[in-house]
Amino acid sequence: MARVTRPGADLVYNAAERFRQAALVSGDSMFTPGRPVWASTPLDELHRRFVLQPDLSGDSFEMKLARQLDGADDATIQLMGEMLFFHQLITRKVSGQKKREIASGVLDLMTRPASIPPDLAPALDAGLISPGTLFNTGRDRLIRFLIEWMRSWRELQADQVALLLTDPWAFREQVCSVGNDSVWLQRNAVLHLLFPDTFERMASRSHKAMATAAFADRIGGPEAAAALDQDRSLWQIRTVLTPEFGEGFDFYDTPAVARVWRAPLLLDRVQAVYPGWDGFSFPAYLKSERDYKDKARVLAESLLGRVVFKGLLDQGAHEEVVTRVNKVAQATNLLWLQVPKDGDLAILNHAKFEASAFATAFFDLLHGEGTGPERLERFSAYTTAQGLPTKWAFPTYFLMLLHPETDFFAKPDVTKRFLELVGAGFKLGTKAAGDLYARLLEVVESLKDDLAEFGPRDLIDIQGYVWAAVWEYDKLIKKQPTELDGGHTDGPPTDVAAPDAPPPPPPPDASIYAHLAAAGYHFPDWLITDYLLSLATKPFVILSGISGTGKTKMAQLVAAFVAPDQEVETVAPPVPGDASDGSVPVEVRKSAHAHRRLTIPSQLVQGFAFVPGSAPEDLEVLVTGEAYPARLYVHPSGHNVQIHMKPDLYTWFTANVAVGDYIRMRVVPIDPAPGFQLELETMAVERRTESRPSEQVAFLSVRPDWTDNRALLGYYNPLTETYAATELLRLLLRAHAHPAEPHFVVLDEMNLAKVEYYFSDFLSAMESGTEMVLHDAPEDLYLDVEDASVIVPRRLAVPPNVFFTGTVNVDETTYAFSPKVLDRANTIEFNEVHLANYGVGAPPSDGWFRLPEDTVVAGHLEGSGASPTDWQQLPDEFKERLRALHALLELHHLHFGYRVANEVAKYLGLAARAVGPDALEMAFDLQILQKVLPKLAGNRGKLERPLWDLLQWCVDPSADLQLFTGAALASLEMHSAAYPRSAAKLKRMLTTVQTVGFVSFVE
What we know:
Elements: H1 9-26, H2 40-51, H3 61-68, H4 74-88, H5 96-107, H6 134-137, H7 139-154, H8 158-164, H9 168-176, H10 184-194, H11 205-215, H12 222-226, H13 230-245, H14 255-262, H15 267-273, H16 287-304, H17 306-314, H18 318-329, H19 355-367, H20 372-386, H21 393-402, H22 412-421, H23 434-450, H24 459-478, H25 512-518, H26 525-537, E1 540-545, H27 551-562, E2 566-572, E3 584-587, H28 590-595, E4 597-599, E5 617-623, E6 626-634, E7 641-645, H29 647-656, E8 662-670, E9 675-683, E10 686-692, E11 697-701, H30 710-713, E12 715-717, E13 722-724, H31 727-737, E14 743-748, H32 755-768, E15 771-773, E16 782-785, E17 788-791, E18 795-797, E19 802-808, H33 819-823, E20 826-830, H34 857-860, H35 868-873, H36 876-890, H37 898-914, H38 920-932, E21 937-939, H39 940-955, H40 966-971, H41 980-996, E22 998-1000
Parallel strand pairs: 1-19, 1-20, 5-9, 11-14, 14-19
Antiparallel strand pairs: 2-10, 3-8, 4-7, 5-6, 6-7, 8-9, 12-13, 15-18, 16-17, 21-22
Helix pairs in contact: 2-4, 2-7, 4-5, 11-13, 15-24, 16-17, 16-18, 16-21, 17-19, 18-19, 19-20, 20-23, 22-24, 26-37, 37-38, 38-41, 39-41
């Protein structure tokens, strides 16, 4: 059984039994039997005063409650006192004395004050769980749930009450039919207090999800657990664990059980792949990061603290508020500010942004009434109503800086990965929402408790830990057993000037080699590896060679492996049918199930007189001839009319209508006017799965008429005052918004137009980090990206997570590449065609110049670029080889610069870590071939001697150079050349220049 047996627990359960009898059975009183308070009249009055008329001031809960109860009768006031008593039974985070003061303070408002009976008062000293900060800071929300739940209970018939009080699962269904996702703390507390032998003493839904995930294998695996609700899963888990751990074991207090799921949430996962990391010492471990955030916190308090902010509002200094918000936002790099009009500050640069409305809503977010989740929900409602971006990072960044004890910075990519790693059982979603934020804070508070030994001061420390642990974990997972991206550092990085966490790795059995082979393309292993290392070295690769050798397919298949097409389930709208009866098809949204509310289409209620913000009215909903009671709500704006489904209607609804389904609505006027009855009817829909092209890949066929970058970046049309966007521009904007995801651009037949004409801006921007000019329109311009309207920035940098591959065929219709282009790329040739083995099966794997099977390709494509550090880390032996090659080329004034040296060094470093130290010889050969030789182009007088000297050096770097003769060429031992691929290419070029009189690398 789940009942707690520690000292004092029996007092709590006895008090809960008193609540059961007084509130649920008889409608009497816990404190004064015979003077009923748990009855409909006091509940309705409390609902009117507390739920329908919330106090949004910044005063304490007790002060606001006193104002709300001012003038109420004694029964209503005592009801609130008893409700607060019951609400506080579960928690042991508040002292018994404080609990009694809160409840007694309300009772003292009565004209004839009641008191907590002596046999009940000691129950407040015990408590059963530590439900987290939100249980206290969100008290008004949880009390609202208790009021609404008890009002729904009073509507039940006697036989229903009898059934629910004897059947815990039926009772759970009734409790869960009231409220929304933000009240699970109170809902779970009710379940355990009233059925302690069935429901676990877990108020946190996230704890239930984590415990279920940890023991899912005991009840048939994750899929079997997912088919049940959390409580049924835990009930089954308890049943199978009891023989092992004994009757009455506890998920928290039984060490052998708690260790399975309550170990520090990320620490155990990191240690699984890196035992050397023993945790996170507060504050020393990330002291520099903490100092960095503390400076921003102090700045935020000085510029946007409650008193200062209120003064700005009183003065009407709304533009000053915006200026200060910008200053605090830019005090750190925690927000994405590279493209201000499309980043986390997009709200401040939006065409619909209005400073005065923003300042008021932002003050409410930071200093308004209620918990952080409630204030975030109101801020999200404001942004949605104004058509502004509703993002997570912007509001939660400020919440954490102003309220570090209770609020957490929800940086989307990192936070979503964190929730996945700890098995939280829910996803953050794309838009900021109060209920999801409340659930996130539950998990964060749990992590803070788990890390108590490290001494975290507040949620700023926890946010730093989450970032470091998630990043470290993913980096380590990617590096097992290869370290293609540069090796492990001493401890987690800080999130100062660092990108978001990388995406989750694909299944460990995924192989890029198998992927290409399965598509029917049997490239040599070394060629695939070479292409991947080249992309990782620098995000621009040229694939050249004769037509039909698979150059384009190589680029496409690698991109598809890293960023595959998405399978999306869609619902086909139903056939309209006969609507002569005035009915309207309505798509069922997720909110209908979550909040038990349906919005009535405006065309159905035209002509009816509604009072905006009026009290709810009773309404009948007719379904297949049967009438169900409901409540009618009118939004204060008067534009939104909703029905709130009571339990019977909600039961039918959840059993017959899924999210994405359609229902047909019809309004039937009834007397007295302007009354009406609502009819609902389910509609058949067709669900199908569609494959959508990946938004991370752009395939562009180059045209001969490309003479500038407009075909790639688009252009501003002054006649229509709009921006003509391109597929590539949308990809670049998306890459900016998702810096952890690799994006791929394939430029097919790249040299059909002069590359310098249309691609030079990209080459300069990638090399120097400068921004490309898009437009100088006087007004903001918009386009749709990922189903959202975003501003087209006036200047745009090339994101480092975009990888360009150009394919090249050489004939009389194409243009030659300039040294500027070739110097900035790895050029890989596709000229080998082996028809003897064609069609007789896959060629054998060459095995050694190959990445490990479980290599996570996406994790290695970081696009960081080469630097002098790569040169410094290059083994001395290879530095000397590169210096010797440079000196040889310098004799002919064909030498290369520092950029090539750094990029060769980076390629070799990646190859050593990815393939192994034995790969350095082949890697060096490939880099001579791809980085040094491509710039060689000219006539015989210019190139014959350099080509001959280079050929001799590639065959035997230690031999003395000879003058060119036929005999000297014949004497070269090509089969034993030090760098055979480069030597073979040089011999072919030398033969060409002697025969034709001119040669270029790209042939």
